[in-house]
From TrEMBL:
<comment type="function">
    <text>Antiterminator that binds to cis-acting regulatory sequences on the mRNA in the presence of histidine, thereby suppressing transcription termination and activating the hut operon for histidine utilization.</text>
</comment>
<protein>
    <recommendedName>
        <fullName>Hut operon positive regulatory protein</fullName>
    </recommendedName>
</protein>
<comment type="subunit">
    <text>Homohexamer.</text>
</comment>
<keyword id="KW-0804">Transcription</keyword>
<keyword id="KW-0010">Activator</keyword>
<dbReference type="InterPro" id="IPR023552">
    <property type="entry name" value="Regulatory_HutP_bacillales"/>
</dbReference>
<dbReference type="InterPro" id="IPR015111">
    <property type="entry name" value="Regulatory_HutP"/>
</dbReference>
<keyword id="KW-0694">RNA-binding</keyword>
<dbReference type="GO" id="GO:0003729">
    <property type="term" value="F:mRNA binding"/>
</dbReference>
<dbReference type="GO" id="GO:0010628">
    <property type="term" value="P:positive regulation of gene expression"/>
</dbReference>
<dbReference type="GO" id="GO:0006547">
    <property type="term" value="P:L-histidine metabolic process"/>
</dbReference>
<comment type="similarity">
    <text>Belongs to the HutP family.</text>
</comment>
<keyword id="KW-0369">Histidine metabolism</keyword>
<dbReference type="InterPro" id="IPR036482">
    <property type="entry name" value="Regulatory_HutP_sf"/>
</dbReference>
<keyword id="KW-0805">Transcription regulation</keyword>
<dbReference type="Pfam" id="PF09021">
    <property type="entry name" value="HutP"/>
</dbReference>
Amino acid sequence: MTLNRDARIGRSALLLLLSEEKEYQEDLISNTNWSFCEGKVGSMEAQKVVAAIETAAKNNHIIDKDLYREGHALYHAIIEALHGVTRGEVQLGSVLRTVGLTFAVLRGSPYENKAEGEWIAVALYGTIGAPVKGAEHETIGLGINHI
């Protein structure tokens, strides 16, 4: 089981999210044949963040909405990414915190042996803080799960 150094799905998801150049997206897709989507979400409720990312992934055909295992893999990747954003406790409104996030969802095969299957990565970047303009700071999170 060797991870392909040129196809690291977590690194690629973060670069996709943080890159302001569309050339990176084009290169990623042409060199890997992976699929991805991007979006934005802001909320004081973690379930709204999860729902926005799941909806984007389904609408952009990153996951098959009729296959439980694909939705389940995405859910775990989202929760892992939210743990990074919220520093371990996936709580927002109940502790008076709000987030404004951009996200990238990336699906592909990061291993040289294709029998290892596909994986999904969720990268989140934005701000978190008290629900008062100017009382926030940057945050980032990454979640990766096998499908």
